[in-house]
Amino acid sequence: MKRWFKRSLFGIAGAALVAGSLAGCGGHRHGWSGSEQDRAEFRARMVERVGSKLELDAAQKQKLTVLAEKLQAQRAALRGGGDPRAEFRSLFAGAKLDQARARQLVDDKTAAVQAGSPEVIAAAADFFDNLNPAQQQKVRDFMDRPRWGRRG
Q1: What whole-number distance in Å separates Cα of residue 128 and Cα of residue 64?
Q2: Angle between helices 58-79 and 36-54 in degrees, nearest 10
Q3: SS3 136
Q4: 3-state SS class at 92
Q5: Sign of the dihedral defined by the CA atoms of residues 3, 4, 10, 14, in that order
Q6: What pLDDT score was predicted for residue 27?
Q7: Distance CA 114, CA 106 (A)
Q8: What are 105-143's pLDDT values in tens digits?
Q9: Contact, 116 vs 73, CB < 8 A?
Q10: Is pLDDT of 59 > 90?
Q11: How much is the pLDDT for 109?
């Protein structure tokens, strides 16, 4: 390959990595960060809000609570124990991008997704499958509704 072509490919890959990582590490999302008590309060508010919109019974709310807990655990596993921004910045600390560490970060995040996904999928299926057809339609309508900042 020509030298300029290789550099262009690496530049594009690097820019994609930077953009994806910044988007993933950017800003905290509503109640999903903070103390365990904050996360528990956020989950409870979310379950109550969704529960009222979907008119869920107690068993369905319990399934939604399990789903919210599994999603939060998956998010925590993706974040890892440290500061994701610091980890990302450390890749650029030297004169060259630490490619081995970047690959390791991607591998770690991929492993976390693969490890937690079966539980999240099972909890989502358990919740959705126990909704009545009208409630399922409300979920579909919500997912189809355009929201600010979402590109479709």
Answers
A1: 9
A2: 140
A3: helix
A4: coil
A5: positive
A6: 47
A7: 12
A8: 888 888 888 888 899 899 989 999 999 999 999 888 888
A9: yes
A10: yes
A11: 85
Do residues 45 and 31 lie in contact, with contact meaning Cβ atoms separated by under 8 Å? yes
User: Residue 35: what are its φ and ψ, rounded to 5°?
Assistant: -75, 165
- DSSP letters along 2-63, please? -HHHHHHHHHHHHHHHHHHHHHHHSS--GGGSS-HHHHHHHHHHHHHHHHHHHT--HHHHHH
Residues 51 and 64 sit within 8 Å (Cβ to Cβ): yes
Cβ contacts of 65 within 8 Å, gap of 6 or more: 43, 47
Q: How many angstroms separate the CA atoms of 58 and 49, rounded?
A: 13
- Which of 32, 18, 16 minimizes the C-alpha distance to 79? 32
For 88, how many CA atoms within 13 A lie in the half-sphere containing its CB?
18
Provide the pLDDT for residue 28.
46
pLDDT-based confidence at residue 40 (cuts at 50, 70, 90): confident
| Count of positions (residues) in the chain | 152
pTM for this one?
Answer: 0.66
